[in-house]
Amino acid sequence: MNDITLFQNFEVKGGPDYGRKNLPILQAALKKQKLDGFIVPHEDEYQNEYLPASTDRLQWLSGFTGSAGAAVVMQDKAAMFVDGRYVIQIKQQVDKDLFDYERLEDGVAKWLRSNVKAGQVIGYDPKLHSPSALAQLVEAIELAGGTAKAMEPNPIDVAWTDRPPMPLTPITIQPENLAGKSHAKKREEIAEILQEKNADYALITAPASIAWLLNIRGGDVQCTPLPLSTAIIRKDGHVDLFVRSEKISSEISQHLRNEVAIQGEGDLETALQGLSGKTVLMDPNSASAWHFETASSSGANVKKAMDVVALPKATKTQAELEGSATAHKRDAVAIIKFLHWLDTEAQSGEYDEISAATKLEMFRHENDGLKDLSFETISGAGANGALCHYRVSVSTVLPLKPNSLYLVDSGGQYQDGTTDITRTVPIGKPTDEMRDRFTRVLQGHIALATIRFPEGTTGPALDGFARAPLWQVGLDYDHGTGHGVGSFLGVHEGPQRISKASNTIALQPGMIVSNEPGYYKTGEYGIRIENLQFVLPPEEIAGGERPMMGFKTLTMAPIHRDLIDLDLLNKAERQYVDEYHAEILKEIGPKFEGEIKSWLEKACAPL
Q1: Which terminus of the chain has a smaller tally of CB atoms within 10 A, N or C?
Q2: What is the CATH number of the domain that holds 414?
Q3: Confidence band (pLDDT; 50, 70, 90) for 2?
Q4: pLDDT greater than 60 at residue 62
């Protein structure tokens, strides 16, 4: 195993030096183009969660590496906007003498309204903003007496002289036996949706949607097997795929056949201009203002609609569900080895967050078929565990100290499925408070795992069940309870989610969602329990009047017994834990022998 190359590294990413070097360069470039300011969102042209190095413009400008944020650069000042997840990270990475720290929740538009002066010209890149978000920004600039100006090319791209090249990873095939449907069948089903909506075309800008639709995968983005590309699907099922030709092999050409026409990325503008008189569906959450404007100004009838692939992609085929179950069982072997290591060797206090994350990845590499991690492991000891989106680096690493908690959130990408699991483990003896909080998180987790609900139920209707045991004692957590998960695609996938935030998408059979309530005590510890589960079809309940849906758990790894306060659990909750652990022993136990087998039997013994 010594020749294994890890997917993750723990180098310090970003940092204040980026801003110190690059902010003056951008301001000089703006002055040259007679701009008083420029808006820099985190998003790239494909609305990716994880950005290729070549499109991470916000990091280049400021040194900030979070997954959400924005900046506005003026000639005499600059501001960085981040949400509540990154209030600590921004202080570590962004120079406060160069950038004012602002809350993303308060809005970039509000800041523009207050800071833009009459007569000033503020630039933006229309390919990086959704139409609705851009409309708010433009309105704020104009209300302040300024002018918003679309810039082509992006001034950062001009000023960024050592910009990494765009990725050119070859596209691969996702086999039909894992996808569950041929891409011909999928295209036929999407074409029927277009016909129902009286549309001639749909623009698909999300690379994950294109990957699912055409049964292809790529490697252009870290942790997610995406082929960066754009597509237009017609109501007859034919697709125009706009992608760098260097990514297309003869095997891929044969796979796509004549129904999918390969065109260059630069041909998209001409294609959009050619839709005059046609009705085109575009998703305002993933297509940019540039897409909308290019098609509309050429005479197309552009209709805002949710990505036509999003819902079919989210409702997994039987083959995808079976593949996910297989991937989770394979992943469970690595997780159980790691949990055994945490309970034994790591109790010495001689290890830290980096050595723990490395150990877990090495265990995953022992599995057949690991393609990548599904995200960089969140390895949080003590106080770092209270940072729910923490990324360990050599500058922040903490030891796994005795009498503390260790939170690890991780996942793997396998060709048959994507995994995501969080476990919280005591190092030494936990306090009574830790056990109380952990047990309440567990109660919420069990409530969401066992809930029954009628057809038409949305995620927000279920969110409170996971929070109720914490709410009863005046506690809560500030992230969503559940996100969708792709099939060898993004670990965060819509359109469904379980959270306080409004969401009108009903949960449907086959959707995979996470179940991850948590509790975080700032400066001390964090707790989260996360399994993946999928929605079951509605079934009659004896004595009931309506069929009800439920969830089936995919993740298989024990929940730490030493953190459970049995006095808090009722009989049904104890039964759930016992049955869950019994299933782990039955399904995964035979894969072990010796010391780990003995440890697993104890870890899964009845409460």
Answers
A1: N
A2: 3.90.230.10
A3: low
A4: yes
Integer Cα distance of 416 and 370 in angstroms: 10
DSSP character string of 210-246:
HHHHHTEE--SBTTB-----EEEEETTS-EEEE--GG
Instruction: Tell me the sheet residues that pair with 381.
Output: 406
Q: What is the spatial distance between Cα 39 and Cα 70, in angstroms, rounded to a whole number? A: 8
Closest CA to 559 of 439, 475, 467: 439
Instruction: Domain of residue 203: give its range.
Output: 172-309
pTM of the model: 0.95
87 in the same domain as 33: yes
Name the domain boundary from 159, 181, 205.
Answer: 159
φ/ψ of residue 301, rounded to 5: -95, 95
3-class state of residue 407 by DSSP: strand
What is the rounded average pLDDT for all residues in the chain? 96
Q: Of 221, 240, 418, which Cα lies nearest the Cα of 316?
A: 418
Residues 257 and 212 in one domain: yes
Q: Are residues 332 and 284 in the same domain?
A: no
Q: What does the alpha-carbon distance between residue 307 and residue 368 come to, in Å, rounded to a whole number? A: 34
What tokens appear for 62 in the block? 């400021």
Structure tokens, 214: 């055409």
Instruction: Determine, yes or no, domain membership for 6.
Output: no
Matching residue, tokens 């469970």: 332
- Helix or strand run (H / E) with residue 493: strand 493-498
Residue 545 placed within a domain: yes
Contacts of 492 (CB under 8 A, 6+ apart): 49, 483, 484, 485
pLDDT tens figures, 427-480:
999 999 999 999 999 999 999 999 999 999 999 999 999 999 999 999 999 999
Span 330-360, pLDDT tens digits: 999 999 999 999 999 999 999 999 999 999 9
> Is 236 a residue whose pLDDT tops 50?
yes
Count of C-beta atoms within a 10 Å radius of residue 544: 10
Residue 507 predicted with pLDDT over 70: yes
Q: What are the structure tokens assigned to 456, written together?
A: 């038409």
* pLDDT of 1 above 70: no
* 46 and 89 together in one domain: yes
Question: Parallel, antiparallel, or unpaired: how do β-strands 260-263 and 239-242 relate?
Answer: parallel
**56-79 average pLDDT score:** 96
Query: Domain check: are 493 and 559 in the same one?
Result: yes
Average pLDDT score over residue span 108-122: 97
